[in-house]
Fold each of these.
Amino acid sequence: MNANFQLSQLSSSLAPEDEFVPRLEACARDIRRISIAAIYRATSGHPGGSLSCADLLAALYGSELKLNANDPLASDRNRFVLSKGHAAPALYAAWARFGFMKPHEVLTLRKLGSRAQGHPHVGDLPLAETSTGSLGQGFSAAIGMALGVRHQRKTARIYTILGDGELQEGEVWEGAMCAAHHKLSNLCAIVDYNKLQSDDRNAAIMGLEPLAQKWRAFGWNTLEISGHDIASIIAAFGEARAVENRPAVIIAHTIKGKGVAYMEDQPLWHGSVKLTREQAETALVSLGTPATQIKELLDVRG
Amino acid sequence: MSAVEKMASPQLIGSSGDSLREAFGKALSEFANDYPNVVVLDADIAGGTGVHHFRKSHPDRFFQFGIAEQNMMAAAGGMAATGLIPIVTTFAVFCLRAVEQARLSIAYSKRNVKIVASHPGLDVGPDGGSAQALEDIAAFRAIPGMTVISPADAEEMRQATRAILDFDGPVYMRTGRSGSTKLFGPDHRFEIGKGQTLRNGKDVTLVACGVEVARALDAAQLLSREGISARVINMPTIKPIDTQLLATASRETGCIVTAEDHNIFGGLGGAVAETIVQTEPCPIEFVAVRDVFGQSGEPQELAEHYRLTAPHIADAARRAIARKKARRS
């Protein structure tokens, strides 16, 4: 974890001697708080799917990826692709939390001239690894990266988070076949399985079940966990690393809108939505944000 | 060889020696040692695209993606992100299937990927309308930052192959299925973004790419018999188009005919018209497929049926000259 994090006091109540898992839980809280603030300031964005993957992002950037804070783009780095690009606020918030982006830049989300575009663009933000926002493509690009680093005999690992609705794209299953065929054990996909998509529940739009069986049938090392349990997420990353000759998929059961009571499990908050002042404040209170920080997040100019 | 063995070895159709796809495949295989980061991506069609040569010469750098072009196209962007130079190969019509992957994961992501498409246009022949991509130049030309190339003969294809490997940026390049007419010797110089005047003339300029270059040269011959002096320009790079060469031709000959094995909208003709109206406006006639799909038939039959052959180019030249004269009278 990087000590440069400025905007908060956010989780400064945690002392360095605190346990690793609670520290990452605090990071996930910060990711959620910054995401809400950025979407409020942008007057548009996707809160539900940003909140559902916050713990996954905290575990990735806080534990698994092990990026060099001084050289995050080192050629032998592990790479992470947010294939569900509409959760960009959470990605930028995670970068802010771990020192790869200035917090105030995250709060320029979706503004003209900002690098924090509505969906991640690698041309502006190299750590995005590839531009995403069209579902399925980040997953395929991650497969290409896994093939590419292995071809060059590098040991780096590639991670990508997909949305559950994203799995309705045929390209995902083209990629699922491809990664298994090429035995890409350096690839770990994570499904943010919050059961909701833009218009309704997955089950109502286009059912995904039996999801784990589908991935197993495609030849993947398939793990199922709670996507809000940091210890389980970290353990699953370890299990994924341990299996040779097969790519891994972690089906992370999550709650859309997690942490904000009025958003949880409500398809309406997929977005893109405009948050009112009251909604933003209520969300931040729901996330345990102290009053002074709420003001800083929602009002202070960088 | 037993009778059964004979029956089990069908003669594969199409890999004629001087087709542009074969020229590409051989050149790529030959040059590959100079470019250790070049890798080839295939969607189960290497025998058709010419990269079977590369598969044989550099099997460790050949990646099979199966019949799944969308994943292949986006994965190419990911491979390029790790420092490789991926060459994505399939038929032009299946490149159309993955245009959006080329847009987001290659062009928008600023990846150094080369998309090399065989079987473009009516030149596909008997496979019919479903296989004849008449929209690919328009589609790929509309993607910001995408260079679009359509060489005219085997020598130019060989040089263009070297040029795209040296070029840093995304490229869409057409090859061709059928046997091509030999136009150029080793003294030919292909350069991305440059056209060449193959024949001087003062009454009209014929601008062509791909298989239409040979037909444009034939048309110039036909026109010369009636005393019409036609300039012929080979325009292998459709984007970025050679604006200067076209403006000069417009100024000096006063009218233009474009010829391409592509739909009339958005291809070479569109590119030429877009630049000419902004530089040296003149009457332009288009020889292209007139907004219809193709059908089965031999390439030459189809070219005649859809009015892409030399007599049709000559007719268009006469129309262009008449319009020029009407403007000036």
Amino acid sequence: MRLEARLKQTAKAFGPKPAVVAGDGQMTYGELEVLSASLAATFIGTGVRSGDRIVMVLDNGWEAVVSFFACWKAGAVACPLHPTIKAEKLAAILDSTGARLVIAQGRLRATVDAAIAMAVAPPRLILVQAGTDDTGDAMGFEQALQMPAPAPLACPPADPDALALLIHTSGSTGRAKGVMLSHANVLAACQSIASYLGNSPDDTVLSVLPLSFGYGITQMVTMVLAGGTLVLEKSFAFPRKIVQRLAEVKATGFPLVPTMAALITAMKDLPPGSLPDLRYISSAAAAMPPAIGGQLQQMFPDTRLYLMYGQTECLRATYLSPDEACGRIGSVGKAIPGTDAFVIDDDGRRAAPGVVGELIVEGPHVMQGYWQDPLASALALSPIDGGRRLHTGDLFRTDAEGFLYFVSRRDDIIKTRGEKVSPQEVENALYSLPGITEAAVAGADDPIFGQVVRAYVVLAEGAVLGEREIIRHCAGLLEDYMVPKSVEFRTALPRTTTGKIRLSAEPPQTVNEGNAA
Amino acid sequence: MAEAYAATLREFIAENFLFRADAEIADNQSLLDSGVMDSTGVLELIAFLEKTYGVSIADEEIVPENLDSIDNMTRYLATKLPAAA
């Protein structure tokens, strides 16, 4: 079965029920079904065919949800990107994906236009909240929704192995990798997640997680599978507003990343038990510091806390049931239902308890590979009977009962506020600034963000560059979360015998002053 | 005094956030909705206000009504620093 077929089922069973709540507006399942069919008809009208890629640069809002399902109804592959993406990177992704269409937030028009102008085969543009009636070459989203859906919509081939998502994630090479997930992959992961979270039509999940990331997308899909309501918020910038909103909408589920948990537990005046409807909180995308997890549980004593681990390549790999959490501090549990997750030793055999090795994931949720990157795909995946095995690149160990514990990453990817940053990608940005002769980037430990991105640079003789200037330059090229928070100037950077810059001998850096809140 | 606050805030925002956005922002424009300030930015802004004006910003004051635009911040600062207003 495909994702749009599951929406159709839910719309049939729960037509008048709210599917998405965003800001002051809400949309029922019936409306979501009809509007996504209309938008799919528009896509097809602009030349989108089965298997075509549609790039989305959208804020969390109902338009994004409609766009995902419209992509799938048109048989297309949704390629959601972070809204702070910059023109050059967007242009590169438009080229590599051969995108037929871009759907973008109106306020991002200048960036998107610049990217389209650079693209080899410029895609068509649909603008959400264009802010003007005169959209020029672009089509307004409202206009795109007015296309009457032909009855029946020319159905895409009912192939569950067709791609549903192409999600770009930071790779250790510095170039973003496109993770290919089929309809069957996404459904397998989300059915498994919905089963252990016990999702039902009674659930209302509030999500601030961007819909450009796997963890955000699984919120949308699990709610559609369960017939629950998804409340979307654009940002966690004002934590108190989100806590108020959780109470207001009587949220039963709240997915977060540890950075958000750290900000919530810092609110001293929040009385324990102030969210009586909140059935569960889930945490993923980075390791939850045990102290923060403990404080969170104290603040919400009747809420079940699920600590989870996953990566885009399989969406979710493990979870720790709150019933089993006692005495297993730091564990992310066991494989999600219907899948397998285990540690292998250096010889490729299942490692004994306590032995550190790579985490392997097997199951129907494992990705199809990386977009147009057979080498990286071959390194990450190996064929097994009836499926694929994913080599996560993350080092784990198990305890005597098979519970998994994250140890470290095998590569040098930085995890900041739950998002992956490739040091190489940031270094490439630094090297493109005249005056920088050597650059290295590493994560500095931070109590709120997990790690923050820190740059180390050596300037050319006579070059005059300040920290601000360097950060500003990076901000013009990188998504916001990748931009270094600080720059340290050096006369030289330590190198290995092969000439590679290596910062691992650096003492851990501490907090910057902005984190007092 | 309000104009002095606004000028300082405009300068801080231009220096620290504005290079992330496509265009200039008006004093009454939402910094969040315009993509100028993200969640990290709010923390930086709070640190800046506390340092520059010697105010202590309580958890419950970290809301868009106080911090999401230059106008809102100017109004908020006037209530925090009544003697100077």
Amino acid sequence: MKIIRTTTSGVLLGLALVGVACDGDSADVLPELEPPVLEPVARSLTLRLEGTPSGIDDDRLAQLQDLMETAFVPGVDANLASRARDALLAEPDAHWALERGLRHEQPVVRSNAAYQLGQLEVQAALVPLVRRLKYEKVASCKVWVIDALARLGNHSGLRELASLMVRGPRSLQADDLVQAGEISIGILDRAHHPIGRNPSYSELQSTLGELDRTWRRRGFVDAIAPTGDLTRLRIDRLLLDLAQFQLRSVDDARFVLQRLGVAAVPALRTALHAQNNYLRNHALEVIRDIGPAAADAADDVLALLGDRISAPYAVQALGAMQCARAAPRLTSFLRGGDRELQMAAAGALGPIGDASTIPALRRLLRDTRATLDARVQAAFSLALLEHGGEGYTFLTGMRNSGRYHEPTLRELLDRLPAK
Amino acid sequence: MSTTARTLLAVVVVCIVAALALIASSANTEQTGSIPVWQSSRQCKDCHASEYREWLGSHHQIAYTNPAVRELSDDFRNKECQACHLPRPVFVTGVTERTLPRLTRPDEGVDCLACHLSDSGDILARHTRPDAPCRPRASDDLISVRLCETCHNQHGTTDQWRDSGYPERAITCNECHMQRRDGAGRGHVFPGAHDLEMLRSAAQFTVVQEGDRVRLRLNNTGAGHNFPTEERHRAVDIEYRFLRGQETPPAFIPAYRFRQPYRDEAGENTQLPATHSHDVRLSIPAGASALEARLLYRLTPYESDGDSAVLFDRRLELR
């Protein structure tokens, strides 16, 4: 009996020692990951959208478009144009024509349509305006799209507005530059952001940059506006587009959903439960791109850690959301197993900002048996957590040696705060 | 049993347990039991050296690192491109479904596992071979158009093939792009738009005089899909110039472009479908003694004449 006791205690001691040798991070035992419960979300969305009217009568739209063209196309008699504009704006459904106007072949019509949508504060125009932000190539039109979005409580265009005021091949003509400056001042005023009486363009850029960072962190301005039926419908359509095969519709949907910020999060949370791999994982990636502003989706994302296909993207999303609750689980992924998970976790822990993960990250960085992918990501996280140090030295060393994918290294180094 | 013996026994047990556990953990996931966990193309190279050599440097392998691709995808800022240029195994994410992007091993691009790793983690091949180290399991999907479709229908190529008449002749992607080798098996280079011989086998370019005009004809005789196909960047141009006696030859003049426009561009898709032909007719100017015409293949529509591949170069003495 004594032999058994001694041997048993020896075995337990041995297991404990091995446990420390293999892990060394934490004695906490994490519950086993369960596969998430997935639902036919795409099918439900399709059925719902099929039964929902989403536009206005074609004849009515044609009438409104005639008014819009008379109002905004150059060359029309000024009085007639003015009357047409007043008549158009008096119509409660004018926004349908103005939304079409965002895609008009003449830039001046596009600018006017965007301006009026902003003035009317038609919340349903949010989706078409953000989509226009993607495709508008004429800078003088783009500033009006950004202005309209800001009036609708969406600051996702501010970074571009700031960049349009930088001298360069894509910069604005002198008149448009003045216009962009005035639009910027208006946006900053409405956001109660202090700016001097005669600010320089660089001051405007800098202050817009601050506002842009606030937007990226919060994903809304002042208060979260209730989402109207038409906007919800349009967001649901975008979700379905995420499940398409061709790139362009997927790319458009991702672009718009990401820039809707908090307004898109409830719908994206639904998509995280989709059986359709593509829909579920694109929703995860959009949430990752929204970042901390998508914090409400944390529980849904955490549940996907048990999904073999989605787990690496879920890890990335949790990192971008700075979800501190995920740190212990993500640290456990550093030990190896699935390399995609290990790499994703190594890169996610830095943005989460939990200093207790530093020893595990350092161990991975120094483990020459681990993949370079994982070590590079661990170096990035360490560089974030330690403000440089060993991680930064590793990344720059890798870049100088040419041993690892240069664009990836450049992107990681760009994400580190300037020293 | 003495205390010393008992202690010794305990130490021995501790050591055995520790050794077993460390062996299990130190394998770093490459080996669990006798079946490896497949994580990289490098695991394939010892047994499949020739296939590995063919793949290494192929446009599948450099799909993510190719500087031209990075430039055209805005350095993959358009993340959708990544799903096909750095894909997870197609059988894991679903055959004919859009694949999903891999996070690791950017230098391996479209790797061995993209096509050969099954949903259950074993290796798929043409034949079941329980005696081979990777224990491949036969899969018909592996050699099907459906597998290629996951990425290559993104720009409509397999849809074009379905309308081409080639399926009825049982000519699939592999017949042209995975040619049989002299020994066993098929090549893993996947020749396509970067292979001059392959491009020249896709079409015939003829120039004939018809009275006071010349006819330049491109006939898609060899591609089971549009020519050019796949990416919208590809362009095939017919160019010509008339020569007058001893005069210095003028510059070539563009006559026709076969290309699908970018999504934001105006214009029609002028790619040449399989088995179709397209004619360009030119009036012969007074004093012209000969015509020179050529067919250029451009990897991007912006590529200069000098950088483009000259597929055919024709000269016609005029009567």
Amino acid sequence: MKIAVLSGKGGTGKTTVTSNFAVNIKNSISIDSDVEEPNLHIFMDMKNPTSKPVYTLYPSIDKDLCTLCGKCGDFCNYHAIIPAKNQVIVFSESCHDCGGCKLVCPNGAITYKKREIGKIFNGRSKYDTELHYGLLNIGEMSGVKIINQLKNYTDSDETVTFIDSPPGTSCATVAAVEDTDYAVIVSEPTPFGVSDMKMVVEMLRQMKIPFGLIINKSGLGDEEIYHYCKDENIEILGEIPFDKKIAELYAHGEIFSVSIPKYKDLFNNIYKKIVEGRRSL
Amino acid sequence: MNINEIIVISGKGGTGKTTLAASIIPYLDDLIIADCDVDAPDLNILLDPQIKFTNKFVGLKKAIIDSDKCVHCGLCQTHCKFSAISKDIILSQSKCEGCGVCEFICPNDAISMKDAVVGELYESSTNFGDFLHAKLIPGEETSGKLVAEVRKKAKALALLNNKKNIIVDGSPGIACNVISSITGASQVIIVTESTFSGLHDLKRIYELTKKFNLKVQVVINKFDLSLHHSEMIEKYCSENNITIGLKIPFTKKIVSSIVSKTIPSVGEKNFFKDIGFFNFIDSLV
């Protein structure tokens, strides 16, 4: 089973929730797909991971074969290949690696070269759980390729994989959440939290992925989130109280249910709810 | 005229970009406001904008498959590098990146590329100046293009109305949305928080801004949450010659302001005065 953890708004507690699941749910795998700013490995204290590069392709022009006909430039919707007066100029950062320019070139002048856009790290945490995360190189436009490759580490149906997802609701989040069995939204009871959560709810409903909500920092804001959930018939799976002690543990990169064991049940119970909910479908 | 375009970004989400951007707004004159966090826009909540114009935003084109003409040869499916076409030749809207390979490869002209509306762009008025904001349809591509469009409109409006300053609320992360937000800006404010992950993410976003040769200053939010990490952030900034413009302690007052939909620096003006906020404002112009 694959469970995505997402939020819309940043900083509501995705990584906090994912790490608490990872240490409490036996034999679970966790993946950090927020490849722009991954943090899960810090909390999980990953030891000596192995890494491998992730590549994207971009076109390279054989000047001897190119007749400067301009077909590649006409085809490319990303302005990544532009035939100029004397040569074809390639903007590799703009290339989406669709393969179109090679298809339309009548002279076989285009081949593809690979360029590293980031890395995937594989290993185990200090808590002896399996952990994978991606890291996008600084200056790269999109981490979607890395996210798609990361999802290959999700296991069969017997184990559960928790996927810490990027904030927002654009393509990177879609890639992280796509093909998961369930999504846990983490939000906070503030107007910002509710507004961003609404966009996530819209996205998940479109993608037909069942979901529930964990309210983080409960008690800090107002009641709007409860009214919204009631109106929209959204299940509140559990609540993490606003507690300065939890915030301080977070600041130091620690998982709060490890330091304060009374919270272990919170995550075990939420997980139980998700599993039972799925069985009853 | 040189426009002073100030971008508020953070790397890590939830460190207080919108809170800070909103707090700056009432104290900058000659201002155009823009929210470039197009897939989680929140500035509107505090600004109470009156929308004047709404424009549909067309991103890239997307493929449309005519099932009457399709003979299920599968060529489009095998050529699509984004796995946007299933074995049953059904297009996934959210995966299609609009490259047009399927349209080209289809032997039966069953596929055409059509403009896809991926968001809305709004031009509004507020008590503090004109406000450009947008909303990406959840799950859509091309948010970087929408960000660029919001900034372009903000700049055009500033030139038209002789406004000196633009403030932009950015998005988290370091990829297309953020690159699109900071390219060509006058100055950048990075909002971080004094946590282990705050420092980790600050380093990555700062590396990104270096590539664009931008004037940068850092604001440490909730600095008293961990004085240890606050010191580490200060050390990192001093080693890299980055100005720390402001340090904000944690207070429930800011959350209460936001809950009551009040701009924190207006509702809690004395608190902001005490932390040196108005000197920080002076440093921006």
